[in-house]
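Hi support team,

I've been running sequence recovery on a batch of backbones for a student project. Most finish fine, but this one hangs at about 90% for roughly twenty minutes before it completes. I'm not sure whether the input is malformed or the queue is just slow. I've pasted the structure tokens below so you can try to reproduce it. Let me know if you need the job ID as well.

Thanks,
M.K.
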């Protein structure tokens, strides 16, 4: 098996962006009242993708700013989640303003926490392997 390096983190972020784009397009192309596609993409596919991406970043990166990756994934997942009701409203300005309020804060915390678990898992695994290599 190949060893992960800094390029792996970049590739993981590119794959995450591709998964996010596919989920966004799936929400765009879904029928207007079809909540199943939105549920699967928002609450299953995107959190799994963000956990896997953050695990790779946590394992590979030694930079202190790697912890912001969890916040980035949380915000991207929130944007996809906010797109579903906005797209179903027909892009009316009143509904767009209504959906961007502090009611989305628990969702942001949920998505960021899921990504943070992946980041923490990768970081702990990296530290364990460093300790093993030092012995």
């Amino acid at each position: 098996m190949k060893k992960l390096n800094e390029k792996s983190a970049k590739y993981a972020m590119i794959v995450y962006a591709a998964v996010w784009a596919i989920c966004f397009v799936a929400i765009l192309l879904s029928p207007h009242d079809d909540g199943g596609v939105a549920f699967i993409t928002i609450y299953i596919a995107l959190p799994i993708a963000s956990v896997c991406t953050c695990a790779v970043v946590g394992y590979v990166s030694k930079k202190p700013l790697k912890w912001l990756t969890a916040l980035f994934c949380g915000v991207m997942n929130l944007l996809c989640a906010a797109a579903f009701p906005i797209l179903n409203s027909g892009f009316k300005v009143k509904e767009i303003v209504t959906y961007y309020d502090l009611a989305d804060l628990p969702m942001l915390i949920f998505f960021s926490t899921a990504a943070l678990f992946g980041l923490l898992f990768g970081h702990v695994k990296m530290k364990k392997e460093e300790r093993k290599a030092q012995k």
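--
Follow-up from support: It reproduced on our side and the slowdown came from queue contention, not your input. The longest helix spans residues 105-134. No action needed from you.
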